[in-house]
Amino acid sequence: MHTHLSNGGDLIRVPNPAHTDPYDELRRLIECTDQNKEDACRFYLQYARSLLFRESVMELVYLETEYREHSGDSDYVISAQVQESSGVQRVKAYVWESKAPQCYIFERDTDNRLKPSQDLVQAENQLLHYYLDLKGSEPSRDEFGVTTSDDFCLGGIIIGCNRTRVRGDYEEAKKVRLYHKAWQTRKILYGHEGIRLMTWDHVLEQIKPRSELSPGSPQHYPIVASKISAGPVPVFIDPRDNSEE
Question: What pTM, to 2 d.p., does this model score?
Fold first, then answer.
């Protein structure tokens, strides 16, 4: 699916006509234990797109899911006019890979060490290949509205949930401790400007209904894009750091 949004006045601000609450629907998908719900969950990224950028977003430019590249199909590529901390505005595109909330993030390696799950390793490999494909593609630069290859950025990986953080027979307190250490090792490996690792619970928190948000939390004002068949799109808000500590 591809969507142009910055040209032609496609965005129209209207009340959200949704018949179901996105928060409840995504929570239901995350809680499902008998099926892989990656594709269904990816639909709800439209309500949390501010998580996908590091900068303040001024205007969405282009979005494509299952974007065909030389190495395969990238799950989610999104570009927008952003404002950097220096005040400079430019179009940037972020590349994201998603895995189902039913996928484990880490698994047992030794009694005192976890290793990334096969799903996480696969996501890392796919993301890096798709990112390099985009940077080397002039047609992709035109399509996403970026000026140079440097305007393609590594977004990150959305995988698993609180329930699927660790696969392994550990006592609960030890499992939590090992999980946080394993998470920190990935953050070291990815670097400050590299891959961001998030669970679907981070996305769920972002789309929590306004009545449940804590004071000072950003709020969501849905709009409808006439070229998006998937439904309403939220107004962008300043990104929050929702990576795990």
Answer: 0.79
